[in-house]
Amino acid sequence: MVQSAATDAVFAALSSPTRRKVLERLSAGPATVSELAAPFDMQLPSFVQHLSVLERSRLVRSSKCGRVRTYEIAPERLEVVEDWLAARRRVWEARLDRFDEYVKHLTKRE
Fold first, then answer.
1. Spatial contact of 8 and 79, defined as CB atoms under 8 Å apart
2. Nearest of 66, 63, 55, 68 to residue 22 by alpha carbon
3. Do the beta carbons of residue 13 and residue 23 sit within 8 Å?
4. Nearest Cα to Cα of residue 6 among 35, 14, 88
5. Which residues share a beta bridge with 69?
6. Residues 43, 50: Cα–Cα separation, whole Å
7. Is the dihedral of CA 36, 16, 46, 55 positive or negative?
8. What is the mean pLDDT of each run of 10 residues along the chain (110 residues)?
9. What is the C-alpha separation between 84 and 74, in angstroms, rounded?
10. For residue 48, which of 72, 24, 73, 71 has the smallest C-alpha distance?
11. Are 55 and 61 in contact, with CB atoms under 8 Å apart?
12. Contact 77/57 with Cβ under 8 angstroms?
């Protein structure tokens, strides 16, 4: 159940193009809130809400030095998504393998 909640939180966080772009930027290295917000045409409080969603999902973490808050990506949390997608892939690959075997079986009978 905990894993499911974590997966839901990560996918909800990744559902926004803005948040995905923030993650892409953070994959290049840590950045302050103003650096992250600069490319986006939105008010700072709205942008900070996106950062809050990312932090609650634990895809990013922040630290504060004086008045400056700096964010960095937490790549280990992306493993939740990778694990979920890998499990779905295994299911579909097994189904396709069985379908392939069935088609081969039918072809031999003809």
1. no
2. 55
3. no
4. 14
5. 64
6. 11
7. negative
8. 80 96 97 97 96 97 96 92 93 96 90
9. 18
10. 71
11. yes
12. yes
